Amino acid sequence: MFLGYILGLWLLNLVVIVTGDANPEVCSACVIVVGLVQQAELQGQLADALKSHCPGGTVAQRACYAGVDRLMMGVEEKAVPEEICLSAGLCSNPQCQLFKNWPVKDLPEPLPDWPTTRRMLEQHQKTIYINRHGEKKWSLGCLNEQGQARSEYIASSVYNGENYLAPDAIFACQYDDPIDCERCKETVTPLSAKTGLPIVFDYGYRKVLGGNKGAAKAMKEKLKTADTVVVAWEHNNINPLTEALGVDSGLLDSWPESDYDSIYTLKFDAKSLELLSFTKSSEGFSEKKKSNAHSSMKSVTKALFIDVLNTLTDNAYDASSVSTTEDFGLPKIALPYLAVANLKALSSSSLEDSECDRFNVTCRLDAFANYHEPLADRDGDVFSAEGKDVLRGTHWRGIDCNDKDASIHPGVSGVEEEVSGQDINCNGIFGGNETGTFESIFCDASDPRGVIILGDSATAHFHVPPAWLTAKSLDFSNIVLKVLDELDYPQCSWGTGHADPEDCPYQHPVPGIDGVFSIYEGMRQRNRCNTNDYQNIGVNGARITASMNLAKSLQRDTVRDKPALVWLSLMGNDVCNGHEGFDHMTTPETYYEKAMETLRELDTKLPSGSFVVTPGMFDGVLLYDTMHAQQHPLGTTYEALYDFMNCLGESPCWGWLNSDISVRRKTQDIANSLNEVSRQLESEDFQNFKFLFYEVPWKEMFAEYAKSGEPLTNLIEKVDGFHPSQAGNALFAQNFFGWLEREHEESLGGTNPFNDEIDSIFF
Ligand SMILES: *[C@@H]1O[C@H](CO)[C@@H](O)[C@H](O)[C@H]1NC(C)=O
Ligand SMILES: *[C@@H]1O[C@H](CO)[C@@H](O)[C@H](O)[C@H]1NC(C)=O
User: Fold this and answer.
1) pTM
2) Which CATH number fits the domain 125-269, given the four candidates 3.40.50.1240, 3.30.420.40, 1.10.730.10, 3.30.40.10?
3) In this predicted model, what pLDDT tens digit does every residue of 668-715 receive, in sequence order?
4) Is this entry keyworded Transferase (predicted)?
């Protein structure tokens, strides 16, 4: 299954290697990546992106902004890198090695180790650490033996620049009363001796000394010249001091009498001194059992999610039934985006005309997560308005030109326009003259139709930017938008690509193609009346056994809508997954059963005159032969990368991406047997569509491309070494569309003689 590949595991597993050790340790590399994601600049970017999804209107907007700010704090607070790495299972198998044939050649520069990286990250931030004094002899007394040992430990093992940053300034609370021993000062005296820094001892919680507020002010003032301030304070006054430094009281639990070990970490922006984050951790002097990282991460994330939803919606419903992001196949860190984006969908939707109660989070998220329906969809017609491109919006399906009316959306036949004169099907052609509506004058005789692609990650155009992995240019820009589209680029894909090439991954030259070409583009070039009539229901990891959900997500009305050219394209996952062995591959019997189930479902949804095409599965032997000896951006060979992924149990395709040729051949035999089933489906009868099997001539297609003098590796994704690249997508589209033109032109509908006239009036 591919679901786990969405961002998290892919990045984390692959980046392991760039630590540069001959025997890389998985966890430290994971920590680096998570650390990068936590850096201040990126967080600012995340926060901005989230806020752009907030609803308008002052009250809702303010609540939403507050929720985002709080979420960002939560991400920082809870996302202790080690915990994330543990919970993602990334420290489980450190004996898997990528660089078996180390060194290869031209190795990318390795990333610095984690302490160096962390120091780099923290250059943008200033820090205040708040501790309690050590254990005391009696309630008002001086440090006892344990307290003194603690104070030594703080100097040697806590603020030593490794576990925590070394201080540039030290503050201690002055009790300034005749009876209390000055145990805060005692606690940081060894640290002061070790660092040579004086203890600032002019402040305390008592009013005469300025109180907690005065102390907070002095500490922030100090941050102008110091990067890191260590504070020892009286425990009942730690929370008030922390609040005075800007932390929301809602984030603070009361400090128990028995607790001498906790540390509050407050991070501030180096320039503005604005509070960025608040975290709680421990000195580690009192031996405490480490909590189970996995379960605590889970409950914390879920609690956070529910908390935010409730905050933002005034407890309008019970959010406790919401499932975690794991159910969406997204990394946990994506959860806040979902929460806010979902809120946006909630707040802008009306309840009418919808099967789903839009104020019921479970239901909305369900439709989004399981049926890949857009989150932003006011009228519930499964199309999003212009500008709502991500989260299964217009990158995936044509623009809804009226998102307040469920009867108006792409694909509707033109009949109703003859009555209303409005653009009912959002193809941009509307109005008319005495002769009739332009829709009827220009489109009726042209046999228009839509393009709908049901499929997998190759359909959705999965792509990880190489810059996210290349040690020399690690660059996470645009990560938010990419996550919101599940790391897919349907707007650039072979089936429904329609975007500006500048907004797509880099494309190597493909003879005969300039820019983005897709089946949809081909259809639109034939007939402008097809404009905007596309649906990409590509889901990372989809295989025939899950194809029913794809069919359910398809939006078409047998009566009201135009016919469609549908591709049911599952190019690999039925034989591809991370499991060793052949047991997890789909058998021909299951394939037949599930394919028929899905096709029967399609028969209930597609208007008569439609076509359904299934292309043969990809040729895994060809894929391996093309890639295995090449060098991956990380500096090793693809062969070594594939074996490494297999060792981790995280390979996208154990069977094809395997250095054992007998495994590759047997996997290809199984793929061929499934193709044989698809071929047999051609003899089945369906009421509303004709089924076509396309035995894609992969080898010939690649050989033809090779004649242009370009390397075949251009056709495959650089990072994963598995999916078609942007050039691969273009080549597939050219080949698939060419085959339809030659062999099944009837499936494409007509070529419109009015195209030029339509262009001159409408486009
Ligand atoms: C929300 O929707 C889910 C799924 O449709 C349903 O099971 C649940 O009862 C609904 N909850 C409320 C409060 O209506
Ligand atoms: C209406 O527009 C069409 C298309 O431009 C044109 O062919 C036709 O002559 C027009 N009819 C009238 C009455 O102007």
Assistant:
1) 0.65
2) 3.40.50.1240
3) 999 999 999 999 999 999 999 999 999 999 999 999 999 999 899 999
4) no
